[in-house]
Amino acid sequence: MASVTRFLERRLKLKVNTAKSAVASPTERKFLGFSFLDRGRIRRCVAPQALARFKQRVRELTRRSGGRSLAQIAPELSRYLIGWRGYFGFCETPSQLRDLDRWIRRRLRAIVWKQWKYGTNRFAELRRRGIGKDLAAQTAGSPHGPWRLSNSPALSFAFPNAFFKGLGLGSIYVKPVE
Length: 178
Hints:
The protein has a domain at about 45-165. The chain is built from 9 helices and 2 strands, in the order αββαααααααα. The protein has helices at about 1-10, 50-60, 70-90, 95-115, 120-130, 135-140, 145-150, 155-160, 160-165; strands at about 35-40, 40-45. A two-stranded antiparallel ribbon has the order 1-2.
């Protein structure tokens, strides 16, 4: 580290920030929001800090107590997702992006469940969306919270991925063309 710092400061006349600089293996360091995985071959992935910032921003945009419908949330969220995908979309770990897409859709389903408020309304809304009587009654009467129920079969059938696409919600995972 000392010889690299000397070279950069004396020869190239650059200032080195010692708090941010280190000499280490690429798998141990983060660079511009990316980190590197070594599982047989080196692959570019989104750094954990960047994922945490992404999730925090999505949480801000999709607060369950915001009093907004999905139709109002989707355009703003979509703009953020498309911008984020433009920067991080070329990572070499598509499973990370798929998992984030699933997490976002689950979060949106939790918003809807929270907005429906009461068991009778939840039952009626599920029935209106084609869910069977037994499954709708079981889900609407469940004592579990919105986050747990957002992963239930009833809400997954009531709000398939195509529903969110129809709202104009962008995706951060784009299936590669073969």
